[in-house]
């Protein structure tokens, strides 16, 4: 099939490369010439395992352009632009979606299918469908559930496909089945529904995941007040298959380009619809999440004697989660900045996210690796659970950190091992 993908950010770049891998002819469109040039050279513009390899492997069927006119050869057009939070409210900023549709309309032909993948407030697809219909083309909404770090696998082996279509548009279902034929395994659930349900599936899923994380982090607050261990609590309740252990890792909470802005955008949309009460619990989910960051700063302050002024703090981790260089709404970077605000001398490190963090927070000091960051530190704080931090050797680090203080913001270290090596180990939600 001949496909265009409008927007080559995280979602679009992965989607374009994955569609080419499935054998389609793909053109990716982006307004940023530097990004287009990087992608065209077979280089991923951000860290995502396997993406650069895929760009090279699929290069014969994949091109990138800043020229919207290049979509003319295609008859299936994916909208994969970002919908960030507006700077002065909780609502999603739809300007890139609108711009994508504005740019696409003059190039659409009767019979084309436009497929929205971006996360949008419920009601957006119905509105856009009317505009698309003026050209004789049609619209479907097909939300994406990919996780950073697993984005290619999640796209090529989805755990479900959701098609939101106009009433009776069976032709759209046929087209989408054809485009994903190489990704659909026997038994892959495929939900064909209306636009509103398809839009809601995405935000409801993210709201549920955020709630699950904040639930266990609320339990961490109780554990801290009672001397209980939230990690054992999570293991124990997670054995109940109705609950499940995944997404019950207590710690610094959620960040990134999706969960925080999606729950806020969902609340803003519910308010517009006059059903804000239905989602008022999400403001608690958000508040619990943000409280973990302050608690981490409090714990660090306590652990170095009551004031951070002039203390050397080594921060291990900057990305919002491991296997990513993304620092959007990163709890790790937020903690680092708060420590700095309180007068600490912060040296931060991360296996992949130093450059993205530096562009956002030039005021921090950055070190290339954990040992360099730890030199002469009064305390180490672990804020992203990268595999290399989980296996750090407490004996190896001990000569660098005279006070032997470590604060585990992700419950990713073994307290027994660190304590046996003479460290003062503190963690969120653990005695
Ligand atoms: C998320 C959704 O999982 C994905 O389906 C959607 O398409 C986009 O948003 P992503 O942002 O890549 O994906 O990250 P995810 O792995 O979901 O983690 C989100 C945040 O939650 C991270 O900051 C992570 O550290 C945190 N988290 C996750 C926890 O704090 N505890 C957990 O148990 C799990």
Automatic annotation (TrEMBL):
This is UDP-glucose 6-dehydrogenase. NAD(+) binds at residues 30, 35, 83, 119, 148, 261, 328. It comes from Ruicaihuangia caeni. Its EC number is 1.1.1.22. Substrate binds at residues 145-148, 202, 247-251, 255, 321. Pathway: Nucleotide-sugar biosynthesis; UDP-alpha-D-glucuronate biosynthesis; UDP-alpha-D-glucuronate from UDP-alpha-D-glucose: step 1/1. InterPro entries: 6-PGluconate_DH-like_C_sf, NAD(P)-bd_dom_sf, UDP-Glc/GDP-Man, UDP-Glc/GDP-Man_DH_C, UDP-Glc/GDP-Man_DH_C_sf, UDP-Glc/GDP-Man_DH_dimer, UDP-Glc/GDP-Man_DH_N, UDPglc_DH_bac. SMART domains: UDPG_MGDP_dh_C (SM00984). The keyword NAD applies. It catalyses: UDP-alpha-D-glucose + 2 NAD(+) + H2O = UDP-alpha-D-glucuronate + 2 NADH + 3 H(+). It is an enzyme of class 1 (oxidoreductase). Keywords: NAD, Oxidoreductase. The keyword Metal-binding does not apply. The active site is at 258 (nucleophile). Residues 314-415 form the UDP-glucose/GDP-mannose dehydrogenase C-terminal domain. Pfam families: UDPG_MGDP_dh, UDPG_MGDP_dh_C, UDPG_MGDP_dh_N.
